[in-house]
Design brief:
252 residues; two-stranded antiparallel ribbon; Chorismate lyase; alpha+beta; single chain
């Protein structure tokens, strides 16, 4: 049996050492030696192979994970990331169906579900008075175990009185609302933000990791049904749409 040849120790030149490690890993991915889902060598194996310190290798792996190129799973190892999931920006979709359609495993972790007094921001978004009792749901959507969306949703009890009694441990919050409340109007606004400490912990990212946040409000008649903020780690998820244009609408 022929053993794989040990790589020559990296020489950084004008680049820093950890950048040389990153380029080595990226080259292996570009040349398809390591494909999506492939478990790459451990930190200690890379230290021995490349002749670098563990601190240097650790920094390179951490930065590649922050960029969405690698996925680090505690107790399992480090893997080449799959292509980023993408969801439609202009329509309400079922994240569970989208994930399973990609052939991946879906899971929803329900963090909290209950009644709260509406803050000024939430009351304004739902068209209610500050302090009005509203429903609040917070959950993490996972694809193959990796958090891809943090859903922070407030619901007007007048619009969906049965919401609080549902079992959302398998997801389906949007599906339930679409099934039980006729929606007439939807508003979407996308922001780029840095997560709070709690949001970063739930998404398993660092607080300095940027997120895309989809802010959505829905109406049934003149009643605002729900106000939801969906946080997506920028390196793991994309929002986009393709649609037909009718008439002379230009390219502005």
């Amino acid at each position: 049996m022929t053993r794989p040849r040990k790589a020559a120790p990296l020489r950084a030149g004008s680049a820093t050492l950890y950048q040389a490690v990153k380029e080595h890993i990226l080259r292996r991915i570009r040349e398809e030696h390591w494909q999506a889902g492939h478990r790459i060598p451990s930190e200690m194996e890379l230290v021995a192979e490349l002749g670098m310190s563990r601190m240097t290798v650790h920094r390179a792996l951490r930065e590649l994970a922050d960029q969405g190129i690698l996925v680090r799973q505690a107790g399992l190892g480090t893997f080449v990331a799959e292509d980023r999931a993408q969801s439609s920006l202009l329509k309400i979709t079922n994240l569970a169906d989208e994930t399973r359609a990609r052939g991946h495993e879906y899971r929803c972790d329900l963090i909290r579900l209950g009644r709260e007094s509406a803050t000024l921001e939430v009351a304004s978004a739902l068209g209610l008075h500050t302090g009005t009792s509203v429903y609040h749901a917070l959950c993490v959507h996972r694809e193959n175990g990796v958090p891809i969306q943090l859903e922070d949703r407030y619901v007007n009890p007048e619009a969906a009185p049965g919401f609080i009694n549902q079992d959302f441990t398998q997801g389906g919050i949007s599906e339930y609302l679409m099934r039980t409340v006729p929606l007439d109007e939807v508003e979407h606004v996308v922001d780029a933000v840095l997560p709070t400490a709690e949001e970063a912990e739930l998404l398993a990212i660092r607080p300095a990791h940027p997120c895309l946040v989809l802010n959505r409000r829905t109406w049934s008649g003149n009643l605002v049904v729900t106000f939801v903020r969906c946080f997506h780690p920028g390196s793991r998820y994309r929002l986009g749409s393709r649609f037909r244009v009718s008439g002379p609408q230009g390219f502005g």
